[in-house]
Amino acid sequence: MPMASVFTMIINGELPGRFVWRDGQAVAFLTINPVTPGHVLVVPRKEVDHWEQMDTASFTHLTDVAQKVGRAVKEAFGAPRMGMLIAGLEVPHVHIHVFPALSLETFDLALADKNPDPADLDAAADKIRQALIDTGYREYVAD
């Protein structure tokens, strides 16, 4: 049996994660290497390596969660636009990057902060959780 992906280990609580959303099919948590403050990963609970291999209903749910989280991130950080990116090269488990898009350079994951302050990540997660609560998604907000 293949080893669980790092995202599965985060979802299962084997590794720490700053969750902002949890439901039966997907989770969202802050990345440890943000391109901008508020950079979130939306991840299906089920391990699938490539997004095009997902069944349509699961992919639709994942993008629906990404949109809801993206609206909360936009509100929380006053972003002019939101970025959404599926790269799929870093971890063999589908994930959607959702982040405040300040410029085209924001889409370059190579420019991500490799050593963010943990307090800043905690504060960003709190802001996103509150924005999700304020927009009516309390039942999905991770504690």
UniProtKB/TrEMBL annotation:
Q: Which InterPro entries match?
A: Histidine_triad_HIT, HIT-like, HIT-like_sf
Record Pfam families: HIT
Provide the HIT domain boundaries. 6-111
Q: Which SUPFAM superfamilies match?
A: HIT-like (SSF54197)
- Annotated catalytic residues: H95 (tele-amp-histidine intermediate)
The Gene Ontology biological process annotation of the record reads: nucleotide metabolic process
Q: Where is this motif: Histidine triad motif?
A: 93-97
* Any GO molecular function: catalytic activity
Task: Give the protein's recorded name.
Answer: HIT family protein
This chain's source organism reads: Gordonia rhizosphera NBRC 16068
* Lineage, opening ranks: Bacteria, Bacillati, Actinomycetota, Actinomycetes, Mycobacteriales
